[in-house]
Amino acid sequence: MEAVVEASELRKSYGETVALAGVSVAIERGEIFGLIGPNGAGKTTLVRALTGTTEPDSGTARVLGDPPPATDRNRLAVLPQAFSPPDRLTAHELLSYYAGLYDDARDPEEVLADVGLADAGDTWYEALSGGQQRRVCVGATLVNDPDVLFLDEPTTGIDPAGRRTVWRLIESLSAGGTTVVLTTHDMAEAERLADRVGLLADGALVADGTPTDLVDEHGGSSRLTIETAAKPAAFDELAYPVEQPSDSRGGESRSPTTDSIVVRAVTPPEIGDVVDYLEEREIAYSGLEWTEPGLEEVYLELASRAELGRTDAADRNRAGGTETETRDDEQTSAGETA
Ligand SMILES: Nc1ncnc2c1ncn2[C@@H]1O[C@H](COP(=O)(O)OP(=O)(O)OP(=O)(O)O)[C@@H](O)[C@H]1O
After folding, report:
1. Is the CB of residue 229 less than 8 Å from the CB of residue 240?
2. Residue (of 186, 185, 208, 181) closest to 197 by Cα position
3. Which fold has domain 3-216?
4. Residue ranges of the chain assigned to CATH 3.40.50.300
5. Which H helix or E strand runs over 51?
6. Cα dihedral angle (248, 250, 255, 258), rounded to 10 degrees?
7. pLDDT digits (tens, 9 = 90+) for 141-152
8. How far apart are CA 15 and CA 22, in angstroms?
9. What global pTM score does this model have?
10. Pairwise CA distance, residues 50 & 58, whole Å
11. ipTM at complex level
12. In what order do the strands lie in the sheet with 17-28?
């Protein structure tokens, strides 16, 4: 398959802050690539390097075969995280304005219908709800019927029904051959939409795979949480691994909870064995909850590993001193739809 978005060893630092530490990725035509990672991981910087609004210090990028500054703007669209169009335009006027920037544009009415706002065309942007405004912004990226679409947290602030409208839209765009790079903090969104997920941490792509593969590799086993005051020792004879969950994952605030026990790797038909164990030994419990691992577990696991790695590196640096490549900062340009 043809890669329409490619990055090779992209590096970018702002002063001593390394935003991208050598990111390589290739995204194929029609693929939905979910970009996830903690705040400050480098996601926006990567998108900016791929869309030509920031110049990497080194490495190369190509979108639709050209380096980003030369990418055909008629074939590309970007929805930045913070995008504030003029308030005193109606939704229809706004989409007409953006449509006017392209040689060949879609009918704004059609685009409004796509984002579920067919009846809101005459409403001023400022009079729309936050979620409706975000949907108009998504619409603004669709007026040129792009071949490559970068969406930075497109559904933030949108209600569940509206989110589903946007999800279905993204799916149908991808089915029609549009390549979508979707930055999100919503793991359900990434799991539902992304063909492939890339997890950035500290400027490095620490995982890249289908949601299913990532969950198999890093998600750990299923969890059966038992609400009980019993101690882990009460489960010594149970044939499954048992642990006492922590109040928080990672960090020094980790402390065991005293009101629940987690039994790992129990399949749904085996839950009865655990219940029998509780009953036979008269262990009091007030509830059971079985959960499969998902992308959220992958995210927490890999992000906490990256955090541990950073702590180790900081310790080593404190012990031995380090050299950091610095470079002049550059202006952050306000995002704009392409
Ligand atoms: N123009 C800039 N000047 C200085 N530092 C910057 C600039 N842009 C980004 N950074 C820094 O680079 C790092 C990566 O930032 P970036 O915005 O790419 O992260 P992100 O993953 O998009 O975060 P978030 O999830 O919060 O949007 C951060 O430490 C950030 O402070």
Report:
1. no
2. 208
3. Rossmann fold (3.40.50)
4. 3-216
5. helix 43-51
6. 50
7. 999 999 999 999
8. 16
9. 0.82
10. 13
11. 0.98
12. 17-28, 3-14, 58-63
Cα 223 from Cα 206, distance rounded (Å): 25
- Whether 299 and 207 have beta carbons less than 8 Å apart is answered as no
The ligand 1 atom at the shortest distance from the C-alpha of residue 20 is: 14
Ligand 1: distance of its center to the CA of 330 in Å?
12
> How does DSSP classify residue 113?
H
The answer, yes or no, to whether any atom of ligand 1 lies below 6 A from the CB of 335, is no
- The band of 207, judged by pLDDT with boundaries at 50, 70 and 90, is very high
Tell which CATH architecture fits domain 221-291.
2-Layer Sandwich (3.30)
Kindly report, as residue ranges, where domains of CATH 3.30.70 are found in the chain: 221-291
Tokens 């020792």 correspond to: 233
- CB 253 near ligand 1, within 6 Å: no
| Minimum CA distance residue for ligand 1 atom 16 | 42
Q: What is the DSSP string of 269-309?
A: GGHHHHHHHHHHTT---SEEEEE---HHHHHHHHHHHHHHH
